[in-house]
Amino acid sequence: MWFRRRKDRSEGHSWFGLHEPFDPKYRLVTSGLVKPWVLFIIRLVLAVYSLATALAHLIIYADVQRRPGDEYYIYFTRLTWIGLTAYFCASSFHSGFFVLSLRQLRKHQTSRAPWYPLQKWGKFLQFLHLYLFSTIITFPLIVTIVYWAVLADAETWQTPFTSWTNISMHAMNTAFLVIEFLFGRVRLHLGYWIFCIITLGLYLGLAYLVHDTQNIWVYSFLDPHKSNAHVAAYIVGIPVAETIIFFIMWGLIHMRDWILPRGRGVRVIETS
pLDDT tens-digit profile of 61-120? Predict the structure, then answer.
């Protein structure tokens, strides 16, 4: 489907992607590999699975394992999974709306531009969506690497439930990242790097606050009584790893967009 839109010259030069008009090439709702309705289905399936997994894990964690429900939210793994869930719920909503918009325009044989809600929402919500994307495209790799390299033990496979949740939250999380990278067209903007680092810093503060208030070490490698050197290494190493992963993903996304420069199912004719 072809339609005209005034050329936006800021898209490739924005630190945060909050140019005007927002997302003129529909990167957030199109794919270089599949049509928009297929992208919608992919994101919807991931949203349903991630939401069902989060709810099942929370219910079993609180009711079966007899642990306080508020403890569920002190682990970075689970917060990252909630972020994945939120992103795929939001992105599938906007993708679905965009597909309906395309079908309505085809039905009425008009060349008007399709749209989706986030394009008309305020800059703050647009910022939050792109910020959320920057976390789900980088944090899952950190979770996967740290868990399997440092935290995994015999309890990982203790029961079918723990096996399923650990595979979901410590392996499938990275698979979801790869799927979004391959099938999506969302740009990773450099300005969000500092917010990712701040997020990690805030979580570190939360981890020590939990220990001070509940006497729980969320992750044993944060306990300074075991080894100050190891704690310092983790505190410095994880943000460094996030920085490396962020810029690797930034480069891979630009390479993807160079190989697949256009979204399937939609063609934008830019005019001055």
Answer: 665 555 555 677 889 999 999 999 999 999 999 999 999 999 988 887 666 789 999 999
H or E element in which residue 237 lies = helix 228-259
Q: What DSSP element (H or E) covers 268?
A: strand 267-271
d(CA 136, CA 180): 9
Cβ 119 vs Cβ 21: under 8 Å: yes
**How far apart are alpha carbons 75 and 219 in whole angstroms?**
8
Phi/psi at 237 (5° precision)? -70, -40
pLDDT < 70 regions, the chain? 1-13, 61-70, 109-111, 267-272
Q: How many other β-carbons are positioned within 10 Å of the β-carbon of residue 109?
A: 6
Q: Please answer whether residues 98 and 116 qualify as being in contact, where contact means their C-beta atoms are separated by less than 8 angstroms.
A: yes
User: Domain range for residue 197?
Assistant: 2-271
| Beta bridge mates, 4 | 269
pLDDT tens track for 204-215: 999 999 888 888
CB 177 within 8 A of CB 140: yes
Residue type for 152, please? A
196 residue type, one letter = C
CB 48 within 8 A of CB 10: no
Q: State how far the Cα of 90 lies from the Cα of 160, in Å rounded to an integer.
A: 30
Domain count, the chain: 1
